[in-house]
Amino acid sequence: MLNFDFDLVVRSFPLLLMGAGITVQITALSVGFGLLIGMFVGISRLSLVWPVKALAAVYVDFIRGTPLLVQIFLIYFALPLVVGQRIDPFIAAITACSINSGAYVAEIFRAGIQSIDKGQMEAGRSLGMTWAQTMRYIILPQAFKRIIPPLGNEFIAMLKDSSLVSVIGFEELTRRGQLIIARTYGSFEIWLTVAFIYLVMTFTISRLVDYLERRYKTDDKH
Fold it and tell me: In this structure, are residues 159 and 24 in contact, taking their beta carbons and an 8 Å threshold?
């Protein structure tokens, strides 16, 4: 019969919380950079300039068509062979996750922009605004309100997928769990605790996204 070691959980919890903090840091930075990449690529996907549109499509298709784990390996193991210099695990983790997130955010932005009535762009241009000004001041603010739910889902997905950076030795939540298990052999207790921490983080983010969505809907009514 399996005996649950509560004392092990209590002793390990501070270390796991530190790992959870690093996980949140990786996720926030990756999705933050991913937002910048995704907005640029998403707009490029709608460009009338064919080479720009094609390059954006190739980027999105390649990243979405390959596993994040392979992308992490490419950045951490393969890229140093090209540049001739070792890459810090933190930099490699953020780079790979940001590039991955950017591809998914690009499609979110593209769908959000396309959901705005085309008459909005025509109205902006008729007022003497340039295409870029119309996109910045009229289209994107409306699109952003509509893409909050899928952006929240992307944040949650990246929070869970960030566990993959443990394969390059970066000590986020999952890696901390592995190290504790290697020392204590408490697989059941530690993995259950790790799962619980992930659940708390994703549940909190889900509630925050729901709140932001309701708030923007309320603002639109007023």
Answer: yes
